[in-house]
Structure of Outer membrane lipoprotein SlyB:
Amino acid sequence: MKTAKIMLGLVAAGLLTQPALAETKLGDKDRARVARAAAADRDEVRYCLIQRKKGAKKGTIIGAAGAGGTAVVAGGNVGESLLAAGAGALAGNLIGKGSGTNSRCDAVLKRNP
């Protein structure tokens, strides 16, 4: 039973890492935000928005893998492990989105809402 849980965790981690390898693209709202930005700041706004998205993706993967792995090691059943992985993914996404940029990006994004 332990081996099955470990294998399930590895498969889930493998599936979660695939979207992170895809190219990060901006959505319609973010492209509109870049277009509204001052001409001198457009490249920086685009860069900062992409960095924020990358941070959110990385945080989601790390949170899901960490919480799911901890639940498996702690002896939780499959349902508990998946629930923990989901909660970890949500928390990781929020944390990664906030820490994906530096103070310069924060200032640029604040200047260009």
User: Anything to note?
Assistant: The two ends are 52 Å apart (CA to CA). The chain has one domain: 2-111.
